[in-house]
Amino acid sequence: MKTKNIVPELDNTTEEKIKNAARTVFHKNGYAATRTRDIAEEAGVNLALLNYYFRSKEKLFDIIMAETLELFFESLATVFNDQNSTLEEKIDLLVEKYLELLKTQPEIPGFILSEMQKNAKGLVHHMHLRDIVIKSYLFKQIRERMGDSVFSENFMIQNMMNIIGLIVFPFIGRPMLNEIFDLNDTRFQAIIDERKKMIPLWFKAMINMQFPIEFKLQF
């Protein structure tokens, strides 16, 4: 007498447990260094059950990547397109929201950077990043503040790179910073809290900077 294969019923709780475990392990180790066995152990399930829900590490990774990026860029679009806040208020809110996010999930920048290096074009297209930035109300406000010259366009790009670097680098470079400055968790968090106040001041100073006419004529 043949016995039927018993197929476990899909359980949203188990699925979320596996996804949360995968998010933790992927953020910590990156895709290449992560094994499905690591995720199963983190989730407290057997490997067969993990494979039943997600079939492959690649499929699970794609899901986690999409959710991570959605979290990372969702508040970005909200802040960028708020028509009721000034440029200065947007800068304050942008810095505060992202530093708070990265304090709780410091692995996100390195995780996203790694994937952008592999397929930046696909990532930008999938997440509509060009629209989020170029078509945003924030971009319009900066353009109005600075004018429409080629110099202003390039300087605007410089400032966008500056603010991203100022926010993200401490988390990407933390292992190196820890070694150089002997930073413990308490001191690092205190430095990040200080940056909430300092980064908006630096950025506002940059966008309001006056350049000599001979410098602008180079563009």
What's the structural blueprint in terms of helices and strands?
Elements: H1 12-29, H2 36-43, H3 47-54, H4 57-80, H5 87-104, H6 108-126, H7 129-134, H8 137-146, H9 150-172, H10 174-181, H11 185-207, H12 213-216
Helix pairs in contact: 1-2, 1-4, 2-3, 4-5, 5-9, 5-11, 9-11
Explain how this protein is built.
It is a single chain. Helices cover 77% and strands 0% of the residues. With 219 residues, it is mainly α. It folds into two domains: 1-55, Arc Repressor Mutant, subunit A, CATH 1.10.10.60; 65-211, Tetracycline Repressor, domain 2. Helix 4 (57-80) packs antiparallel against helix 5 (87-104).
N/C terminus separation: 83 Å
The percent of residues in helical segments reads over 70%
- Structural class category: mainly alpha
Q: What's the architecture of the largest domain, going by CATH?
A: Orthogonal Bundle
Which percent band covers the strand fraction? under 5%
Gross geometry: globular
Number of separate strands: 0
Number of domains: 2
Element-by-element helix/strand order: HHHHHHHHHHHH
Tally of alpha and pi helices: 12
Rounded to an integer in angstroms, the radius of gyration calculated over CA atoms is 22 Å
